[in-house]
Amino acid sequence: MPIAVCRAREIDTLDSNCPGAEAVAVLDERILHVGTYGEVVRTLRDRCSRRDRYVNGVIVPGFIEAAPCRR
Which of 23, 24, 54, 60 could form a disulfide linkage to 40, CB 3.0–4.6 angstroms apart? Predict the structure, then answer.
């Protein structure tokens, strides 16, 4: 199974040692690596599949996206 590497304008990690990043690698809903895009790709090599759908957005790994309010 390929590892999804998602790029974003900003990734807030909530980790004081690494407060921000530009890419996150995910496999089976688990975060494997967070850092610069180059670091993530070098670490995981050819097991990656790239997803740029968040390239202009902000990601906060570990949090579930809120569902829209329905009336």
Answer: 23
Token pair recorded at residue 68? 């829209």
CATH code at position 36 = 2.30.40.10
pTM of the model: 0.72
Residue type present at position 66: A
HSE of 37, CA atoms in CB hemisphere, 13 A: 11
- Inter-CA distances, 39 with 52, 64, 68, 69, Å: 16, 25, 34, 37
| Exposure of 56 in the CB half-sphere (CA atoms within 13 A) | 0
Q: Give the pLDDT score at 71.
A: 47
Tell me how far CA of residue 11 lies from CA of 6, 22, 26, 27, in angstroms: 10, 6, 13, 17
